[in-house]
Structures are given as C-alpha cells and as structure tokens.
Fold:
Amino acid sequence: MTKAPQDMSDGERFNPAQISAFMGRHGHGGMLGIGYHDHGADWVTLKLDWRADLVGNDDTQILASGPIISLMDMATSLSIWTKLGKFRPHATMDLRVDYMRASPPGQTVYGRGECYHVSRSIGFVRGLAHNGDPDDPVAHVTGTFIRTEGFGAPRDLTHERA
Amino acid sequence: MSGLDLDQAMPPYARALAIRSAGDEDGVPVLAMPFRVEVLGRPGFLHGGAISGLLELASIAALRSALAAQGRIVRIKPINVTVDFMRGGIDHDTFAVGRITRLGRTLANVEAAAWQGDRGRLIATAQMHYLLRGEND
Structure:
C-alpha cells in the first residue's frame, strides 16, 4: 500500500519505502519513474533508470541534468522526514549540484540523500548520485529545506495564490 | 535562432516536459513549461526538479544561441548548478530565460530566472557553470 506523506496519521512512524512508492507513481516522480532503493536512520537512497525520453543531448544520449536534480531533491527531502521520524511540510529552499562526471547511457542512477542537521525551521541536507559505486560519484549535492507550516515560514513558499 | 528552430533543437527531456519556445527577451530565447500532472510535486505545486530542469534548458538555449552567433561549435558540459527557490510554482505556465554573465573560451557563467504570471516575481533562479569543449578537445 502506498500513501501520500500528508495522509500519514498522527503518531505513525515515517516510512520512506512506503512514501517513495507513492512519489514514484504520482506527479513528477511518477513521470521520471523514481523508485525506492534503501534507507537508514537519516538517509534515503532512491533510483532513477536511464530512459531515452529523459536524455538531454541527442548526440551523447546522456541523461539531462533535470532528472538527476529531481532525484536528489526527492532523496534529500525524504531524508529529513526519515531523521525526524515523521512528516513535516517543507519546501526546497536551495539546492547545489556538482557534477563529477556524466552518467553513462543505459545506467541506473542511485541518489542517496542524507539529513545531517534539522532545526525547528530548516533541514540541512547533502547527497551523492552514483551508478552503483558510491566511491565513483556522478554528482555531489548540498541544500536546505524550509518548513512551510507551523513556524514563521515565508508565505511566498507556501500558500501564495497571487 | 527562430522559435521553430529552437523547438526542433529541444532534447527529448524538454519534449517530455512539454517545454516550448516562447519568444525572446532582448534576443535571448525564453522557454515555457505548461503546468501538468507530470511536473507536480507536493499537492498543487510544481516540483522543484522540474523548475530546475526548465532553468537548465533555458541556460543551454541561451548558450547555444550566443555560441552560434560567434560561429563556435562546442560541446556544453555542466560543472555545477545552484538553484534558489523563492516562491511555490502554481498551476500556470512557467517561463524561464538564461543570462550569460561571462562567455569565455573554456568556461561559461550563466544565471537563469523562472517566473509565472508576473515577470517581476521570480519563482526560482539558478547559477550555472559550464565547460565548453571544442570538437577536437
């Protein structure tokens, strides 16, 4: 069974496998076919298969940068809720991706996101994208997420409809 | 580059996001991405990764256009990208344009901006570095 993060009941322990199954079937995660791979106390690894329609350059057949950013955004986002043990609404504030190398055509990309600190309002994350060997990374990632409910979150990031 | 040429030059990933050319701003190509379920993140809002993808494609379109104007044929390799998200993207078309701050022989610095209804209210910006490699490098 899968459910959306916001549908979790009070007191229910956050389960990244269950939530990523939902995210891999709906919206942008569903379009990219992002799936769950593994998790620990403060980290989550998701995976993204190479697909011809996600290519950023017809000549090289290398994946576009966007799907890798999406993968890392989702993995790092989930790592915060995993560390907290519960869902808490947030939005990505910033994300930096450094590319060590291209991910070769046909190869699955694994995105490991880790929450190394979470405060009342901000989640601090870092991550690694690789093709199966974390010692040979495709990209390093760092970023922050801001809580969008319950703690002085900027309205712009939350419910603005103007 | 005319709008039609730009649409034909779009990579598969851009077509998967239904991104199309939407004119230009001072000669720099503007791209548009429609709001669809395929680019949805948390309920009612655009996914940050889809916004990032649009910013990246706008930057590359700006670079290709500037490089073509100089008659240069090079491969464009991303080194890094930093995306700032300022506002949640809602159920409207999203536009983006890339601004080249420096175009050197081996390195290009690009800043891209994304907005929806109001050009003055940006939903996200990105700063990017690209390595430029000649055909024989």
